[in-house]
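This part of the workshop introduces the protein records we will be handling. Each record describes a single protein and holds just a pair of labelled lines. Instead of coordinates, the fold is spelled out as a row of discrete tokens. To make this concrete, we reproduce a full record directly below:
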Amino acid sequence: MSILVAGLVLFLGVHSIRIVADDWRTAQIARLGERPWKLGYTVVSLVGFGLIIWGFGLARASTGMVWSPPAWTSPVAAALLLPAFVLIVAGNMPGTKMKAALGHPMLLGTAVWAFAHLIGNGRLAGVVLFASFLVWAVIAFIAARRRDAAAGVAYPAGSGARDAIAVVIGVAAWAVFGFWLHGPLIGLRPFA
């Protein structure tokens, strides 16, 4: 479990710098330059992500159950993941109405993803992993919306065509991951 926690601290910690130390972040970018800052950020993120994957695999096999999810949580989780995938795609795609309306759809998609997995996982490792991501995503979304409001940020109106593309890509990614990749990569087949 310690490897999982170390990965979460690194990954979510580096992704929380704008929340807790935005002025420090700005000063470091000015001091180091944008490219070196992004390189360091990426390296720490990848190390943290790798530790999360490794640590979750180890902890999942060795931790007990915190609660037993009812049978209804599995189809609800699968259904919630559909909008999560769409929101994550929309957050990484400029010019969507979703981005204009929500500001940070990727963070909302991450929160929905974490919540969906949290309701369907009762093992301690899953609760720690998904609760951590859920809390972080909600706090990050609130902080980002406040930062946008303080800076007067307004996202471009976007187009319905871009939203349609985000939906098609999100649905396709959801299907590919749910039907074919989740089993080999995670060890659980959600649609089996």
About this structure: The CA atoms of residues 2 and 55 lie 7 Å apart. Residues 1-62 form one domain.
